[in-house]
Amino acid sequence: MLNCYDVAKYFIAQIDEDAGDLVSNLKLQKLVYYAQGINLALSDQPLFPEALEAWIHGPVVPVLFHTYKRAGAIPPPGDMDFSIYCVQTREVLDEVYTVFGQFSAWKLYQMTHEEPPWKNTPVGHEISFEAMRDYFKTQVVT
């Protein structure tokens, strides 16, 4: 099983700095949330074991947030080992990035605030894998 850092690193590695693409901690948190939710919907298994919590600005993986808490864009990783991602995982992550990576951090913020996993979880509490799976099953076509 991957961890949240592996998923985050995959997304960060997709950034094309030459094209002016940037990823903030806020946007990264939302991409990781969508990856977890969609993977739960498709496989009934978490993509990574770390918990997501409902924070004021939406779903957050606290350990990941604290790693990248700083102003500005997160630089792409210098070392990427894509062999740790199986084909199915890469397909999920690529689809999440294609669908959600096009949106700004604030658009993703607004989207997550309209979704039941965040809306139905008190701020500061863990968003259950079950709540995410149940919601995202209504959003993905299998």
Automatic annotation (TrEMBL):
<dbReference type="InterPro" id="IPR025272">
    <property type="entry name" value="SocA_Panacea"/>
</dbReference>
<dbReference type="Pfam" id="PF13274">
    <property type="entry name" value="SocA_Panacea"/>
</dbReference>
<feature type="domain" description="Antitoxin SocA-like Panacea">
    <location>
        <begin position="28"/>
        <end position="119"/>
    </location>
</feature>
<protein>
    <submittedName>
        <fullName>Phage-associated protein</fullName>
    </submittedName>
</protein>
